[in-house]
Amino acid sequence: MLEEQERDHAPYEGPVDLPDQHEPEEEDGHDDRPSLADDVLALLEDGKTYADAEMAFQKSRAGYAANRLKGAIAFGLGAFGVLHLALIAMTVGLVIALIPIVGPWIATAIVTLGLVALGVIMLRQLKARIDDVRAAFSDSNDE
After folding, report:
1. CA-derived radius of gyration, the chain
2. Three-state DSSP state, 96
3. How does 50-88 read in b/e, with b if 16+ C-beta sit within 10 Å?
4. Residue 130 in this model has a pLDDT that exceeds 90
5. Terminus-to-terminus CA distance in the chain, angstroms?
6. Are 131 and 138 in contact (CB under 8 A)?
7. What's the rounded mean pLDDT across residues 42-65?
8. Does residue 12 carry a pLDDT above 60?
């Protein structure tokens, strides 16, 4: 019976999870694996490569944003100019429309006083907004 057990079980030759073509390493004192210093140097090199790539990406992104911002500013100034001309045309048209009713000098005075009143209202709103911003950034003891 002991002979049957020995025939059924092959002698143990090594770990069972190794592939069939695995050849055990020879113990000659020479190790081909990288050392910790090699790993650290490789990590530093990879970090430098990553930093260089990130810097190039951020430069290209900043250049793209600056280019788009220049275009946006140009269109914003163009829109402001066109709206300004439209308001001038409306003012002149209002004066021309009032001339037959009240005369040229009074029509000019009415439009001028209306625009001044509108400007004063807008300046008060601007001052209120600026005061709100100042209050937000001032010390709480100043209130």
Report:
1. 42
2. helix
3. eeeeeeeeeeeeeeeeeeeeeeeeeeeeeeeeeeeeeee
4. yes
5. 102
6. no
7. 92
8. no
